[in-house]
Design brief:
about 240 residues, alpha/beta, N5-glutamine_MTase, methyltransferase, SAM-dependent_MTases_sf
Length: about 240
């Protein structure tokens, strides 16, 4: 009985329908802010863009990367930085504020690209951060590589045949893990020698499938950090994974 209850709980946490409902709620709720505060700074939030205030994932991403306001003095980070699926651009901007000299904020959602541009301008980092409309690495110049590539992924698995009804859903679910497969297959070609290819994943996703995809693409996953956050009534594990050959 206990095993059955645990399996049901796991299915509930991983439910793509539940994640799609969370997407709709976040996008349409009456108290959705136009400007929010995180890390002691104000950030613009456009309609149709993932809201960091409605999920712990952005804050956890900052913690994993050592980019929180209290993690290290500003200016201590070095090298180039690519944020895949940038949303508001918050992590990319924080990377620049912490000292990364060349930063790219990429997103497939055009509203997110506009949102990132607003926050790049708001925080005065346009000299070292650019926002691009890109499906993973598709819009980057050939051969452009980065010392750090980071993706806080849409780790909930949706059926392979699912078709997005709104771009906002792209931040929540990945049909058939097609995007995860491409990321694993391509990310090391976008990582500079000695650099790091990083993936923020969680127990809302299918770790067993992700590891199988890594094997199929000639890569492996190394866990660098993990933490547990209670989201609603559910304890959810979050992981920082490094992709290597």
């Amino acid at each position: 009985m206990q095993q059955v209850q645990q399996a049901e709980k796991t299915d509930q946490v991983r439910s793509y329908e539940r994640s799609l409902a969370r997407s709709a709620e976040s996008r349409t709720r009456a108290d959705r802010p136009r400007v929010f505060t995180m890390e002691g700074r104000a950030w613009d939030l456009l309609d149709g863009v993932f809201a960091p205030v409605h999920s712990p994932s952005t804050r956890l991403g900052l913690e994993f990367l050592g980019l929180t306001a209290d993690a290290a003095p500003a200016g201590t980070a070095r090298g180039s930085f690519l944020e895949v699926g940038c949303g508001t651009g918050l992590i990319a901007v924080c990377a620049a504020l912490h000292g990364h000299e060349r930063v790219v904020a990429a997103d497939i959602n055009t509203a997110a690209v506009r949102n990132a541009e607003l926050n790049i301008a708001r925080h005065g980092v346009a000299d070292r951060v650019r926002a691009v409309h890109s499906d993973l690495f598709s819009a980057l110049p050939a051969g452009e590589r980065f010392d750090t590539v980071f993706w806080s992924s849409n780790y909930v698995l949706a059926p392979a045949g699912y078709r997005y009804r709104h771009d906002h859903e792209r931040a929540y679910v990945d049909p058939g893990y097609a995007t995860h497969r491409r990321f694993l297959a391509e990310v090391l070609d976008r990582t500079a020698p000695g650099g790091r290819a990083l993936l923020h994943f969680s127990s809302r996703g299918d770790m067993d499938l992700l590891r199988r995809l890594a094997g199929e693409t000639g890569t492996k996953l190394v866990e660098l950090a993990a933490t547990v956050i209670v989201e609603g009534d559910d304890p959810v594990s979050h992981y920082l994974l490094q992709i290597t050959r």
